[in-house]
Specification:
Blueprint: H1 2-22, H2 25-56, H3 58-67, H4 72-86, H5 95-124, H6 127-136, H7 159-163, H8 172-175, H9 178-187, E1 190-198, E2 205-213, H10 217-233, H11 243-261, H12 270-293, H13 296-319
Antiparallel strand pairs: 1-2
Helix pairs in contact: 1-2, 1-5, 2-5, 2-13, 3-4, 11-12, 11-13, 12-13
């Protein structure tokens, strides 16, 4: 868990560094997405190679299944021996994906942290600075890029949702900015607290001052008062039109379809085909739900990532064309 948090904060700080140099959230997301996809493309290649190798030996595996259909233990031993001789692993197409999944979820968390951090900046500002900051959150048809592109989502996050977010107290931005914490404490939105830990070297108990967000009536009232000018500005205005969730879902479906299109179709891997087909439809649904409930910045990342995935899959389809194995003898 600690390693996941370290990786998440590393992603967060990397994106913030890119943003500080180019000043555009969109291009920051684009550059970050290209870098992450560049890392995971090696997993894509490994997965495709493994699938091609498995397709080539399917007729042999089918013959073994026919020969030892009445002896499951012998069948398993012979299949393992045969695959080892051919240098093929049945987990070869799965392990690369399992390795990259933590990167994906840490990247999601980094976007969530960044979104909350920007809302904190908005909360502690006032007057023209607050309005200018809010204006910088606009992206095309979206009024606030840190809120979902959702026709039912408010432009300004409501107090209950903001104050109950557990991630807020973890953010490095806040840990490194005591002035921000002081403002939040004075507003009655946050409070100081001491956290104990045991020093691994001296075994002594150490106390560290940290902060936590409150969710009582005073905190809610303070939050609403600070956000009132913006809330009035966007009264009756929704944050988006469901466009990014639809784009993210559609591009994810297209990327999955292109990848599945090149998979070998044999009787021996019928179960795997059925599972892959189910996943092909499940992931776009998941992406739609995720993008409806997360910031538009994350939806932009997902759409760009799927678009790059489409290009990568088209390229890999040319590099590793679908193998049509010769079916086993019917004798």
């Amino acid at each position: 868990m600690q390693n996941d948090f370290f990786l998440t904060t590393w992603f967060l700080e990397a994106m913030k560094w890119i943003y500080s140099n180019i000043g555009s959230v969109f291009f920051t997301i684009l550059i970050s997405t290209v870098i992450l996809r560049g890392i995971t493309v090696f997993s894509d290649i490994k997965t495709r190679k493994s699938s091609a190798q498995m397709a080539e030996i399917q007729p042999d595996l089918a013959r073994l299944q026919k020969k030892y259909k009445d002896n499951p233990q012998r069948l398993q031993a012979e299949q393992s021996k045969f695959m080892k001789e051919k240098g093929v692993s049945m987990w070869g197409s799965c392990l690369p994906m399992l390795i990259t999944m933590p990167l994906f979820f840490c990247f999601i968390a980094a976007f969530r942290f960044w979104s909350h951090e920007q809302m904190i900046r908005l909360l502690v500002e006032s007057g023209e600075q607050q309005k200018q900051l809010m204006e910088s959150f606009r992206f095309l048809w979206i009024n606030n890029i840190w809120q979902p592109d959702n026709g039912l989502s408010p432009v300004i996050m409501d107090a209950a949702t903001f104050l109950k977010t557990k991630d807020l107290s973890k953010l490095l931005y806040l840990q490194n900015n005591p002035e921000v914490w002081e403002k939040l404490v004075n507003m009655g939105v946050a409070a100081r607290e001491l956290v104990s830990s045991v020093n691994s070297t001296t075994k002594a108990v150490e106390w560290t001052e940290t902060f936590r967000f409150l969710s009582n009536e005073t905190a809610v009232a303070s939050y609403n008062a600070a956000m009132q000018p913006l809330a009035e500005m966007y009264t009756g205005v929704n944050n988006g039109w469901f466009i990014l969730p639809v784009l993210a879902s559609g591009s994810q479906l297209l990327a999955s379809w292109i990848m599945q299109k090149n998979q070998p179709q044999t009787a021996a891997n019928a179960q795997a085909q059925s599972t892959n087909k189910m996943m092909m439809y499940m992931f776009p649904i998941m992406s739609f739900v995720f993008c409806l409930s997360n910031s538009s910045a994350f939806a932009i990342y997902w759409t760009l990532s799927s678009a790059i995935g489409i290009f990568v899959n088209l390229l890999l389809n040319k590099m590793y064309p679908r193998v049509t194995p010769v079916e086993e003898d019917k004798k």
